[in-house]
Amino acid sequence: MILEAKKYYEVYMASNVTGDNESFFKCSSNPYASLVTSLKATWLTGKTHPMEYRKKQLEALGRFLDEKKEDILHAQYQDMRKPHFESGFETAVTKNEVKFALDNLSSWMKDEYVEKPLAMQFDSAFIRKDPFGVVLIIAPYDYPINLILAPLVGAIAAGNCAIIKPSEKSPCTARLLAEFLPCYLDSDTFAVVTGGPEHVTKLLENHFDYIFFTGSTRVGKIIMSAAARNLTPLTLELGGKCPCYVDDCCDFHNAANRIAWGKFFNAGQTCIAPDYVLCTVEAQEKLMPCLRQAIREFYGCVPQDSPDFGRMVNDNEFRRVKALLNSGRVAIGGETDECDRYIAPTVLADVKEWEPVMQEEIFGPVLPIVTVADLDAAIAFINCRPRPLAAYAFSSNNKVVNKVLDCISSGGFCGNDCMMQFLVITLPYGGIGCSGFGKYHGKFNFDTFTNKRGTLLRCMGLEKFNSFRYPPYNDAKQALITPSLEIRHRGFGPML
Description:
The chain is α/β, with parallel strands linked by helices and 496 residues long. It folds into two domains: 2-238 and 442-450, Aldehyde Dehydrogenase, Chain A, domain 1, CATH 3.40.605.10; 243-430, Aldehyde Dehydrogenase, Chain A, domain 2. Helix content is 43%, strand content 16%. The protein is built from 18 helices and 18 strands. The protein has helices at residues 2-15, 21-28, 33-44, 51-67, 69-80, 84-109, 146-157, 171-180, 197-204, 217-229, 252-264, 281-299, 315-323, 375-383, 398-407, 442-448, 463-466, 475-485; strands at residues 112-113, 124-131, 134-138, 161-165, 190-192, 210-214, 234-237, 243-246, 276-279, 329-332, 336-337, 342-343, 346-349, 366-371, 390-394, 412-415, 436-437, 450-457. The strands form four sheets. The protein has a seven-stranded mixed beta sheet with strand order 10-13-14-9-8-15-16, with helices on both faces. It has a six-stranded mixed beta sheet with strand order 5-4-3-6-7-17, with helices on both faces. Strands 1-2-18 form a three-stranded antiparallel beta sheet. Helix 5 (69-80) crosses helix 6 (84-109) and helix 7 packs across helix 16 (442-448). The longest helix has 26 residues, at 84-109. Residues 1-5 and 14-19 have low confidence and may be disordered.
């Protein structure tokens, strides 16, 4: 049946080439065209639609995470010297997505019935949860397991076929996924493609039904441009400079522990890490010794010797982040070792907003502190910049935290901690503006890869009720049809 569907789809595509010969011949010579065609053919058979099939694939993905756990730890250590604790943390978060989807899939897939006007009380009106078709998932290197497999959970749960493209910057993990994941998932419906930017370019020449991209804003614009050529819907999970406000009224020891953990986890290569701190001069003086103590307690006097501190992913990233150390004043850390791709956990004091470290997402273990006059100045500072993927506020006064929450816009927010909002699977995760658009995690993951199809089923009888909308029109019909379709206003006053 799959081969028949594939043949039919190829004939259909060939017969529907109308005027865009250049695009057609480009696609026909594309190295991934046959793969995309094969997956589309499989999807047309309806193989991925039944709930039992989706659960079987999700369970297989869970087994991959369990049975290849040690291989995953080893691959990530080879790629980034990532501590096993951090790799295990990433795998556990991904496994939660699998378990949550398995527990809730039956309810997510059910038709969602909606309210109806009087004229349609004998009809069925509901939202049908359909898969998009063949989706493309492209992930970055910083969390090469979670950021590729968590969206895949949503794609599988929603009944799609998928191609996943792990980052070439984490080659050992990419090789692991390419070698072993096909042993667990159905190769008729899922595929792994490896390679660099040139491979992504070729992939994007094909017509996908949905694209999910996690990465930089710069590359996100390229992905969006490619998707626009085929009017392909997409989700962009991008980065940005996530601000962290520290109030004068604060438990500075606790704040320093949480900020240092969030900033230096994965050697700072986290898109929702606190990118910079905003605080008054007085708060900076109180926070600095607490940050120094936290770094010493976490990583020892020589963090380079700590098994719990990772490395920059490659030489280019090392040099890029090292250059940012010239901003402000190095108050803590600052040591580097190019041969080891090591940059110490570093705090920069008295940083000015025009300096290089404040012009781009840092994505490394460097924490600038920018001083402001007060809370209002901090809010103004955040609001005159692109909206971040996440924002943080620390204060012993709940009114201060809530004011930051109310007065700024960001993809996500966490008060009195960093990054922990990512772990709440029932919260949506995603950006806004330049930090991206679209949400996932938990049910939002399923919804992202689902076409919510509005459906109305009417009976063939009761034609007398339909006659009011047929010509010839008159005032009597108008008087009958309008109230039957009217939405009743539930407010206390008149609806304007």
